[in-house]
Amino acid sequence: MENRPLEYDYTVAKLFMYNAIFVGVAGMLAGVVLAWQMAFPQFNYILGMDLAEYTNFGRLRAIHTDSVIYGFVLSAVWSAWYYIGQRVLKVSMAESKFLMFIGKAHFWIYMAASVVIVIGLQLGITSSKEYSEFEWPIDLGIVVVWVLWGISIFGLIGIRREKTLYISIWYFIATFLAVAMLHIFNNAEMPTFIISGGIGNWYHSVSLYAGTNDALVQWWFGHNAVAFVLTTPIVAMSYYFLPKESGQAVYSYKMSLLGFWGLMFVYIWAGGHHLLFSTVPDWMQTMGSVFSVVLILPSWGSAINMMLTMKGEWQQVAASPLIKFMVMATTFYMFSTLEGPIQAIKSVNALAHFTDWIIGHVHDGALGWVGFMVIGALFHMAPRMFKREIYSKSLMNTQFWIQTLGVILYFTSMWIAGITQGMMWRAYDEFGNLAYSFIDSVVALHPYYIIRAVGGTLYLIGMFMFAYNMYKTMTSSRVVEENELQNATPMGA
Amino acid sequence: MFHWLEKNPFFFAVAVFVVIAFAGLVEILPNFAQASRPIVGAKPYSTLELTGRLVYIKNNCNGCHSQLIRPFKSETDRYGSYSKSGEYAYDRPFLWGSKRTGPDLMRVGNYRTTDWHENHMRDPEEVVPGSIMPKYPWLFKNIADVDTAYAEQLTIKQLFAVPYNKPLPTADGSTQTVALADSLDGAHASALEEAKVVVADMKDQAVKDAVAAGKIPEIVALIAYLNRLK
């Protein structure tokens, strides 16, 4: 009895996986529409002028960012949590009816909130704060979802058999705590309907903070939402899935420690780099800048730890498209966490801020690091959840190369666009007048906006291939035995 | 110590929380009281201006336009004097933006007119050849939500002591007062008075008729807001 292997229960993990795939495709489709809108404004009226109010860039932008961050990535993170959690804590969800109920409630309330969010954003209901556009009723809903996840984490930890928490669990705990703190403080908003005694829209609210303070709290949130939604849980994934898939032990425990505690301490400080040359006090800007550069240490600590985990096994990168995704993700992580600090240096930021270079940076991180790691994680989990091999290895390979090309087109075009913009805004002619009007800089970017849209479209095509491959994997590929699922994921041709 | 923490989830979580909360305490709190003080000349938004600000937010204008002029010559030459913290004292939320797909708007009221905005919102390409800004025809049809703006005014007056109906100092030594009506009907009436000033410079007959009939299209409120950005 004692020696029988645990039967893990992936019910909730599967639900989140379906949603991650669906929203991944939908959210990136919105992104591609936005990219074409910037190249050709006619795409703002894609469903006709009468519906342009709902399809224009302004309305779609938040739907794109929020659905990719909180739909695609968070669903994948939670799918990974409900998968990894059981395995590293050596306990099955099936052992606790309570935790199973919490997990399902977590999923369905999250889904309900997501639907309301998308409809609301389409209608223009927004608090204007980037990545935190939701009005107070939704913010309360998010608290409920988050608390349910917290119960799931600490509940599963509470009944664990393996006493030592694996590295991935550290990162999940950090994600939970940090986002809870950030969300509550950034969304401290006063409902006007209640306070004014029933006047106006019931869902409208006004920020507790004004002006510079509001900006400070928002970017403390904005920067660290990137840290704790798009970085820490993704690192949690890479610490579990890369060693599993490659059959290699994590290279160094001490580097894991440095990476984790260093990231925890340093990341939060760096938010000030979004506010350089603004009206927040100079010392805060300098702190933001300095800590952004220090941030290279823990980021690269984790990344190098991942890379060295592959030591002596590099032939796997050539052999397996799944390892390709994970190693390329880590490469983009190193790339992106070097680029970010460079942009946070004051003199560079003077040029880069407000330009498309920032958009390029966001996307080499989001598409290259987060997207690839998530895709790798879902490809690794699906065969183990559904007891079937990956439907097609060659399709996965093609997807990898198409998407890699897409990312490269995206960030190279946005680098050129951003630096062009920044240089044109500051250029003077020989008489001491500004050399260009603003519209000159817009017109100059047209070719780069087209290249970027092509890059984004390629990545989206890859997402469709991914969705198809996953669908076939779940439904009709060859059934495999448990012993085929030890390390390298079995794949059909 | 780390091995011990990794076996004790509660203390592990506490340790993580202390480490991540630390920076927020040091960085954010000290500035709070100081940064929120208004500069001389700053004034709260009138009912119609605030209504227009809500239209600005609803259409995510801040997604493409900043309201933050950095202290560089190339920026002050282009947009006017650089931003001061106290100028934002009545901005809830702040609308600095993070991207300039279009130009900064912090002081757009200094160099653009009602007439310009009307033509530009209807067809940006026609006013600025090469522009990639979409057309905003619905602003001419939708009726602006004065109620919500008024509710917001009441809220900020009550909670944050925003000085409505109080004389405020200006740069030339005189004072100015931003009135806040004491009833919803009063708020509508004062917003309509403001709207009449704006539509006097507009051409669109349907918009003029709407205001004459006591309704305020979103475009009128938005232009009132843009005109006050100085």
Give a nutshell description of this structure:
The complex is a heterodimer of chains A (493) and B (230). Chain A is mainly α. Chain A is built from 19 helices and 2 strands.
Report on this model:
The complex is a heterodimer of chains A (493) and B (230). With 493 residues, chain A is mainly alpha-helical. Helix content of chain A is 72%, strand content 1%. Chain A is built from 19 helices and 2 strands. The radius of gyration of chain A is 23 Å and the shape is globular. The two termini of chain A are 38 Å apart. Chain B has 2 domains: 2-34; 47-59 and 105-228, Cytochrome Bc1 Complex, Chain D, domain 2 (Orthogonal Bundle). In chain B, a hairpin with a 5-residue loop joins strand 1 and strand 2. The model of chain B has no long low-confidence stretch (mean pLDDT 94). The interface between A and B is large, with 91 and 84 residues.
The biggest sheet of chain B, with number of strands, parallel, antiparallel or mixed sense and barrel status, is: 2 strands, antiparallel
Mean pLDDT of chain A: 95
> What is the gyration radius of chain A calculated from CA atoms?
23 Å
What is the end-to-end distance of chain B? 57 Å
The CATH topology assignment of the largest domain in chain B is Cytochrome Bc1 Complex, Chain D, domain 2
DSSP strand count of chain A? 2
CATH class of the largest domain in chain B: Mainly Alpha
**Strand sequence of the main sheet of chain A, in spatial order?**
1-2
* Helix-strand string of chain A: HHHHHHEHEHHHHHHHHHHHH
Helical stretch count of chain B?
Answer: 11
Query: pLDDT average of chain B, as an integer?
Result: 94
* Overall tally of domains of chain B: 2
What level of helicity do the residues of chain B show? 40-55%
Total E-strand runs of chain B = 2
